[in-house]
Amino acid sequence: MSTPTQSPIEKPFTLHPATRLGHVHYTVADLDRQIAFYQDVLGLKLHWREGTRAGLGAGSEDLLLLTEVRGAQRAPRTTGAYHFALLFPTRRELARAIARLFALRYPNYPTDHVISKTTYLDDPEGNTIELYIPSPEDGTWTVVNGNPIIQHADGTPSDGREPLDVEALFRELTPNDRLDDPLPEETKVGHVHLYAANLKDSMHFYHEVLGFDLMGLSPQWRMGDVSINGQLPHVIAFNTWQGEGAPPPPSNSIGLRYFTIVLPNHTELERVGEQVQKAGIAVERTQDGLLVRDPSQVSIVLTDHE
Length: 306
Fold this sequence. Notes:
Blueprint: E1 20-28, H1 31-41, E2 45-50, E3 53-57, E4 62-68, E5 80-87, H2 91-104, E6 109-112, E7 116-122, E8 128-134, E9 139-144, E10 147-152, E11 157-158, E12 162-163, H3 166-170, E13 188-195, H4 199-209, E14 213-218, E15 223-227, E16 236-239, E17 255-262, H5 266-278, E18 284-286, E19 289-293, E20 299-303
Parallel strand pairs: 1-4, 5-8, 13-16, 17-20
Antiparallel strand pairs: 1-17, 2-3, 3-4, 5-13, 6-7, 6-12, 7-8, 9-10, 10-11, 14-15, 15-16, 18-19, 19-20
């Protein structure tokens, strides 16, 4: 008597746990004004400038690339970046960054997401930036049947969008902390949050094709998010707040040109590239890495170096 054999279950594709985000690249209309903002208000350093392009960061690798297109305008109700987020190494450094904004009276919106402490601000051309530090010790954020469930550590519920207790955060500072010092070298791009055309299509691409970990998909909030190796609050988030089926912006509009995903080595880069091609998605080889586009036509550069 023969025993029927079962086909092996195919293991889901997953990213290497050492994968991380690299720099983001934006089109701007006025390079001088944007460089001044990112240096003087945010505290980044100008790493280099060549003609209409510049790179800024915290002293090591570039975190932000800017390319000037004179006369560029923002295209409303399109896909692209909602914001990019700078991850700080400590609460003290986040406190210093927010205190700097307060001292300059620059508009910003300190927010307590329970599992992260953050503030939001816009640059002079309307690009939103988030500054944050994870705080998983302060509570939990889960999605159950499509509904977000947020709780403080003591069990009290939250909507995840409470005003940040800035006075408590500022107690991390000492009289010797200089607000005009540049951002610490450990600062990095922690996540990107995108405007998408369709939640399910975006989740399929980032989770099943690229191999990010599923964090949650909430139709109620019209938002989804994915992570790598359990990083909080997320590594990539996406929403349909610009409208279901929103089109991509015209070429050379103000806003995101691409963001980068850094693989730990060339073998992993090629493995992800092959996975993308298997899914029937075009891969373009460039000097920076592999250029791919998500279902909302947001450009991504996969690379093994920064």
